Amino acid sequence: MILVRYVLKELIAPFLASLFGITFLFVVDFLVKILDNVLSKGLPASTVLEIFVLNLAWMLSLSIPMAVLVSCLMSFGRMSGDQEITAVKAAGVSPLSLIRPVFVVGMLLSVLLMLFNNWVLPEANHRSVELMNAVSRKKPHVFIDAGKLITQFPDVQLWVSRIDPSSGTLYGIQVFEQEFKGPPRIVYADSASMEYVDNGATLMFKLRSGETHVVDADDPSNYFRIRFFAQDLALKNVDDRLERRSRSYRSDREMPIEMMLDVVHDADARYDTALIEAKERRLSTLHELRQRITLDTIVPPGVKSPYTVDDTSKVRRSLSRIRMSEMSVLRTTERLYNRMETEKKRSAQYLVEIHKKFSTSAACLVFILIGAPLGIMARKGGIGTGIIYSLAFFVIFWVCLIGGENLADRLIISPELAMWAPNIIIGAFGIFITIAMIRDRFSGDSKFFRAIRMVGHLFTFITKRFG
Fold first, then answer.
1. How many domains does the chain have?
2. Are residues 276 and 343 in the same domain?
3. Cβ-count burial of 338 within 10 angstroms (0-12 exposed, 13-18 middle, 19+ buried)?
């Protein structure tokens, strides 16, 4: 029992340190990509903090399994390097006795992470989307970014080629205004500036040197091209208050398992309905074709060869009607099978998210199965060893996970196999090195560990070079 407490105590500090470090990297990346625009647009500090806290949920769901692997590598590597593992073996205690309590704690952590991914993470994602929508209504220019189509404005879409970071001037403006009927009105401008008027209720664009292209809704043949030197574009009904509006719609990342299962059952029911309709349509069409062929026989009754001109015309008309019926059958069948494929993809998409919640939670156990024996056999500890060895397994796990998700969404492989394949692959490797640890087949200076270190250094170089 003393040995168990000692091992668990040794894991606490590396786990917390690695959890903080990995989460910090996610935070920095998030700040660079998202909050840079938000902070520069004058939002209150409380709103910025709320955005950060809500997005911290998905960061923790990713960083916790990673921290488990790093902490196992560091702790068991340090104990092996200080000959503590050797002393334990000399006392007649198997290294598996040291891994067993860690595995039990990992099971508890996996269950807690699964509950977190099912209850906390979807709600945090949902509230984050609601908050960002509220921010877009309060400060729509927050989301104006160069090289992206901006759709946050009501009935208006905006494209900006370049933004001057010092003055905020927009260059290469394209505005698409959708009227109640007819094609949109398109405005091109070389540059533009923005300001709020009417106490923040209207966002005014001051366009410079451009053209307006308009098509007459009543007579599409009338096309107008109007050049201007200066023109104002007012976007009204921009609420300067941060008004929260609840959203009834939730994406797959905003749903718990119970809600996603309802969507899967609905998609399966729609698929079965389309399949039955396709079979019924095919049978009824074949029966109709059989009757039509019987009625519109190619050789009319009582007519002898050779055919007359009227007989030949009747044959051609009969064949044309049959051909049109066949084309109608093909189009109807194609639409039905497209419906079936759509529902199948919708079901697979939500099944992927369901299994992902379980597989990423179970990754804690898989990483313990790898980290503990790998640290014992490597006979080296420290943050450097943990990072080098961990990078290779992190990349393998997440590449398999993301690649499997794409394949499952395209119905190439099943969602179950796509989400559990990374755990199966790395878990099988973990069992292999655990058996090797028991038999003392590898050492820290073997070719096996030199290859792992080489792969880790390669991933480190790629991350620094292209990250």
1. 3
2. yes
3. exposed
